[in-house]
Predict the structure.
Amino acid sequence: MQIDARGLKCPKPVVLTLEALPKLGPEEFLEVLVNDEVAVGNLTRLAEEKNCELLVANKGRHTSMTFVPRSSVAPVASAVEAAAEICEVPVPETGDAVIAVGSNSMGRGSEELGKILVKGLIYALAHQERAPKMMLFFNSGAYLTCDGSESLYDIRDLEKRGTKILTCGTCLDFYGIRSRLGVGDVTNLYAIAEIITNEPNVVSI
């Protein structure tokens, strides 16, 4: 398996490596390509922590770092949180975007495709250098912040990076899922109206 992390700053190369290592089968290895000296140091520490043999090769404009696990690597609950403990650099601060998520499916057309898209977008947001300032979940988007959501870990990572996560209480009650809320706080329509009125960078998906 190979990860091309060239052009990415830490903690992102470490996050991607932490997510990939548990997926390796017996006798498989992971090659990570980086061109950032800080990432080289952080990935070296990661190899030691995860009991991996590390083969490092300078390829000119980038460095190839090959992880060969000496034993199976257990998955972590939060790759972003684990990376923050390894990296010398802090997890980046949030930006000023407010993301309003009104459905558990993105766009019009195939609902199956829409669910794949919204999952991929939330994953991408969780791995941006600057996380959103806030995310609002309402209508069927409320399912995304509840137990059973495939995006729950990514949303929890966003919260740990400083993103404020708010889910509409009326929506949770309508769908009967308030007890399953797995991340963030419950809000109401008055608060949502105030947010979208006063925040200058609200993006609806």
